[in-house]
Amino acid sequence: MLQIFRDKAQSTFIQAVVLVIALVFVFWGVGANMMDSREAAIVVNDEEISFQTYQRSYDKLLSTYRQQFGGSVPEELLKSLGLSQQVQTQLIQQALLRQGSESMGLRVSAPEVQQTIQKMVQFQENDAFSMEKYEAILQSSRLTPHKFENSMRYDTLSNKGVQAIGNFVTTVTEAEINDMVLQTGEKVIINYVQITPEKFTDDVSIEENELIIWYGKNAENYKTAPQVKLKYLSFPHDKSDDSKRAETFQTANTAYEGIISSGSLQAYAEQQNNANILESEFFSRIDPPKDFDTNLPILEAVFSLKSGELSSLIESPAGYTILYAEAIKAPEIPPLDMVRTRVTVDYTAAEAANLAQKSSTELLKALQDGADFTELAKEKEIELKEATISRSTKPDELNGFPGNLARDVFSLHTNNTLPDEPAKNGTSLYLYQFSKRTLPEITALPDEEKEKIVTQIMSAKRDRLLVSWIRNQERAADIFTNRNIR
């Protein structure tokens, strides 16, 4: 919840700061309370970062990726993302930024923190700060004012450091303006073809032995989803009414403390005749019980529990929930015959993709050997298209060429007209060839347009300076990383 508070509190400048930091950190986590653990996960120049802080940042980053992927992230992708390293880098560089800010003589006073909090809209009623609302929101989020205000102080100090570093950028030259004009006005014309796996689907033959071997290599993808059987208590609230929300929290928290003191959910239920303990059958993430709270914090908690484990008191936009995992069914790899239809479809798609890759590689080789693109496209019965691309071209102006590949064409020229390999976008492959480049004339710019360009250049220079400054601090820092988080 603390991150939500801070996100909503961002001014235009602080939002820009977060964007700048994202260039370096990949993800900006919550402010750290450096003294909330007896053992350090990371130490940066004698400043300890607790395991609690590390885990909180890791969980938040993981949650972000899961939201992006619709609730779950494939295991192989998770491994390739290197989440632990991302979080370590984020926390180390946040600490370096705070320390650097202090070494510049920057300070954050208590009145500054108070003024920042008083301006936050989520703590206001009738356009004025409400202490009652402030305390209610913090209480419902299980935060103390001291901890929240410390976090705000850390963030404010970091923001001051970013601003101080950016202040070293003061000028933009005419040459830089002209370079920007040339870059933004440059246009490259290419010829291209799209090669899709679907074109090769009919060429795939399915042999039983090959299918069995392929399934053996990919069986993990067909595991059944983990399932859980729950007992749970639900405390819905009206999120728009802070006072009722606080009352609901008190009720839910009292119930949770009662369960803990009773020793188990079952014992609590026997003591409390009016306890409305709900039960579910086995279910997976994609088929939760009717009327169950399916907000992400709840589902994350459900499928992180072990059999016989009680959750903490969990808040979601719909209310508070206490979970007890009565039993868990672990994922299983089914026999081929149970998933034969899916496997056959997936095998066919994979083989068609291989054929598409082979065909596109052969076409690229022919072009590199001097074949005419127009004649080659006719021979292979592939539509040849033309696209005119500038750095400001919108995706719908590219005549079907993928926008995420557009930047790559600017490295091509008359002596190097082809990419090193076919470009991939989704399941499709693209072959493209440089045709022509045009540059704008350098003329006097209207004051308004020139001012926009100067602003863009200044922003980019500040970004580069900040990245360079932090990397320099990191090289000089004494950094310890606990092996338990590697």
Blueprint of the fold:
Blueprint: H1 2-9, H2 12-25, E1 40-44, E2 47-50, H3 51-68, H4 75-81, H5 83-103, H6 110-118, E3 124-125, E4 128-129, H7 131-140, H8 145-166, H9 174-185, E5 187-195, H10 208-218, E6 227-236, H11 242-262, H12 265-271, E7 278-279, H13 296-302, E8 314-316, E9 319-329, H14 340-368, H15 373-380, E10 385-390, E11 423-425, E12 428-438, H16 447-476, E13 479-481
Antiparallel strand pairs: 1-2, 1-13, 3-4, 5-10, 5-12, 6-7, 6-9, 8-9, 11-12
Structural class: alpha+beta
Q: Kindly state the mean pLDDT as a whole number?
A: 87
Domain tally? 3
Strand order, largest beta sheet:
10-5-12-11
Largest sheet: 4 strands, antiparallel
The CATH architecture of the largest domain is Orthogonal Bundle
Radius of gyration: 29 Å
- CATH fold title of the largest domain: Triger factor/SurA peptide-binding fold
Tally of contiguous helical segments: 16
Report a brief summary of the structure.
The chain is of the alpha+beta class and 486 residues long.
Keywords:
Triger factor/SurA peptide-binding fold; flat; 4-stranded antiparallel beta sheet; single chain; disordered N terminus; about 15% strand; alpha+beta; Chitinase A, domain 3; about 475 residues; 3 domains
